[in-house]
Amino acid sequence: MSKDETLGEALRRQGVTRRGFLKFCAATASMMALPPSMVPVIAAALESARRPSVIWLSFQECTGCTESLTRSHSPTVEGLIFDSISLDYHHTLQAASGSAAEAARETAMEENHGKYILVVDGSIPTDNPGYSTIAGISNRDMLEEAAKGAAAIVSVGTCAAFGGIPAAKPNPTGAVSVSDLVHDKPIINVPGCPPIPVVITGVLAHYLTFGTIPELDDLKRPKAYYGKSIHDRCYRRPFYDKGLFAETFDDEGARKGWCLYKLGCKGPTTYNACATVKWNEGTSFPIESGHPCLGCSEPGFWDGGSFYSAISTPTEDIPKAAVYAVGAGAAAGVALGAMNRAKKQKSVDAHEKVTIDDLDKEK
Amino acid sequence: MTETEFLLWVRGPALQIATIVFVLGIVARILQMVMLGRKANLAEARGSALAGGLRTMVTRSVPDKGTFQRSTFTIVSGYIFHIGLFVTIFLFAPHILLVDEVFGLSWPALPTPVVDATAVVTIITLLAVLIHRLKDPVMRFLSGFSDYLVWLVTFLPLLTGYIAFHRIGLSPTMLIALHILSVELLMVLFPFTKLMHTFSLFIARYYNGAIAGYKGVHS
Amino acid sequence: MSGPSLEKGLAAFREQIDAPVAAFFNSCMHCGMCADACLFYTETKDPTRTPIYKLEPLRKVWQQEYTFWGRSMKALGMSKPVTDEELGQWEELVYDSCTLCGRCSMVCPVGNDIAYMIRKMREGMAAAGHAPDGLIGATKRAVTIGSPMGVKLPALQAQIRHIEEDTGLEIPLDREGVDYMCLLSSMEIMNFPEYTAALAKIFHQAGVTWTISSEAFEATNSGIQIGVSEIAAELVQRIVDAAEKLKVKAVISPECGHAYMAIRWEGPNLVGKPFDFKVVHILEVLDELREQGRLKITGKEMQRLTYHDPCQIARRGGVLEQPRRLLDMIADDFVEMPEAGVMNWCCGAGGGVSSNERADDLRLKVFNRKKEQLDAVQAEGLVSACANCRIHLEEGLEEYHMDLPVLSLTETIAEHLAEDKS
Amino acid sequence: MQTELETAMLNVELGDELTYNVKPLLHEIRHALAKLLNDEGPTVIDLRSLPLAPGEEEKLLNTLGHGEVHASLNALGPTEVVETGYPGVWVVLHYNTDREVIGKFIEVCDIPDLLRSQQDDIREGLEQLQSGLA
Fold first, then answer.
1. Which domain holds residue D40?
2. What pTM does this model have?
């Protein structure tokens, strides 16, 4: 597959029929959260799209993001997308290893300078560079070098997007996100722990289709997927509005599928597409299987207190504070009251009798 | 500080500080007030001070006809926004949840759309109340910085609550944090401002009713 | 003595502020409803005459001296202390523009008893030398002569002779061991001798024993109006001494509002001990006689009558039902004015305003409130039970060109006594 | 048929208690059918872009029922094209080769485009036939 070949040509060469290509476009539109009326546009764009070079760097991560992606990697539409890109470096997936792998990365960076897409998963340690290195190169150096020639950077997963679990208190490695270090390149954050696979491929498909990055929110997340909160699109929302909540995981409310807000659901503050795109080929999503949303696509979710207490509830012991305050208030009040009484008594004691001769003011 | 850290601070240390200032301040101020004491009445009583006091604590909520006609706007708007505040504060499901979580007390909530509509009415009424304060010659004359401050810190939690519920403008994390923060501002200022009237008005009404009740008059 | 001073005034404020005052100031939300309850505001539309604003200097002292925040600000030098000039500016608001009628105290939604606080504020105003000259003069006369109008015993004795001649009944002076010792207001002695005559007729018919003390016949108390408790106490003490000396069962407060307040409600508190005798208002006595069937009435007033509740007797005194029951006996066509009773509008001359010449124009201006109330019922006769109200009502009616007789309830009852006594 | 439909409508009512999306969807289909009759073109609805509670999709599909056409095609995995009980309303289900659903659409049209032989494919087929005959 030569680099000059268009995607349309490549697919056709692989024996994909026009009918199959249209099906692929319909699925791609659905994946990109675009309306079905966009299918012809997508078809036209994809036909003439050229396969971009992609360099995938993994830093402080658990490989969950790659796992999420490859779970759906058999001959699927996402697979096709990946077939249509030139994944020039991905140290988990590539066959090459050691210096050969690094050489491939450097070659790709050189040949496609200014054009390649840099995908990053995992956060970057800024404390001691030795916490995470690849081929003796610190994550930070590798990122900064790779970022220079990138057309755009896709931060896959919450670690790359916001620091993630490695950045959880007390953040021993000084982990930071990609956007903390790179400021001069377009960055697309695809957070989630892990992100929904079609969201990763959807973003790549968008770039592939339109050659641009999708519309982003203020956290640099594609609005098409992160534009609405879980809560807004949750099928259990009507229960919230009616005040019907599951109190425990095995009570009547839980069995009846009532709102999980009381069990700590972070749906109201979490923006992601889980409620519509769902997981495992559209089977369900956490709330549907009875578990509150953890808010894994939001910055700081790892330090947000218990997963099982509601988002607005206090994290400190308020009744205890209130009890102490009553005591202290009583003491302070009695002290202030005593001071007032003393002051008043002083005025009473100092009172000089007012007689009729004391009424006229010297004028 | 990220938004989540901000929310955590607001839910944690800030809420703790606000609670301490709020509770300590109210208790201290009420004691400071009541400890000034008053002289025993040596005149022969015609009625019961206690009964009169308790009675007025309740009856003063209902104005007489003439007063209602002369101060219709003040009374009607006052009723609406006080009831509105009560409904939005105490009958909104997440608020009840909060109380339940903290103190283990809970009661039935109103349906969310009802509370939402009440919030809108209350916000509009509070705005009308502000305009009235600025336009009415007596109220404008009487009002100073503290009156407008008290209005503002009452208004802010409603406004931020409404915006947070409808997720307008900022991220929900930030909106909830700002909403909680605005409530904490209210709590912190509470003991130092006339917001104290929430509690002291019952003491004031008691004294008024007791003074009158002792003389056999219903006030 | 050292004379009045700002320091004395502020000390008196500190002394007067108590738990109710603190609760009241704490609760005021500046809603302005007290303005609409006050005839000095409704008839002038002057926002400075808003009742709660009249207390501003007292409120400042409370805040600066008795609140944590105020104390802190004061310690940091960030509060403006109350000045003598300020008190000077407030004199007109505290004395001329308030009759202590207490209507605002009934309306305030947080329950502030504003009249209670004005009464206290006057203590400091007087101590600071900011009482009106007219009230100072009246107070001096009350202490030195025994009556704010300068009525001396010989004048009373002369009136008693006239009344005895007119009625043929005895007016007992300084009689010991009787049921009642009657007090009179100077106005009744000078302007309304018919009141004393009415007492003689009614008590004669009902068989009540009574007397007037030559040492303490004056019922009014300028000390309360000006706001000097010591002087008020001295005036009360005279009555207490006389009542104890004559060993009466009860002292009757006459048809005068503030006199009733002074002797019935403030008296024991001023002298610092409960009385050994009862204090009753003449209307309470009459109503009791009525109930016991000792008031025999003949004929009725046929013109349409209405009743003006004197503030200190009704709203601030608790005598509300008695006049209505009494009027029921003698009035064929009785109508209540709108808002009569506890919410009645003040005539505009109580609380020392009538002794303060400076307020003459103002009190006539605000009488318009009463005029409107009267216009609503088209009465042909206006009954009341306060000589001070009565004088001002007459003046006000004249000012507003209203032809309406003002009647004393006690006198009107006396006119309807059945002649035949068994 | 009538009673079955009624039962289905009842189920829709029940489903409405959750997302309220089933009934609006049916209305959208009704509008799309009217549009189609007025020659205003076909409509495609992506079922995966809407939040639906468990069971709601089944309720929707049950309500629509089965019509006369049931086609399956094999292009990059199977695709099922079913005409519902309402002519002109089609359900199109795309699967990958592992028979995992990759797209769910309701198409309101005379015939879903995918069922037609495509120009490119026809051309390629013709070429193959010609070269085979040569």
1. 2-133
2. 0.79
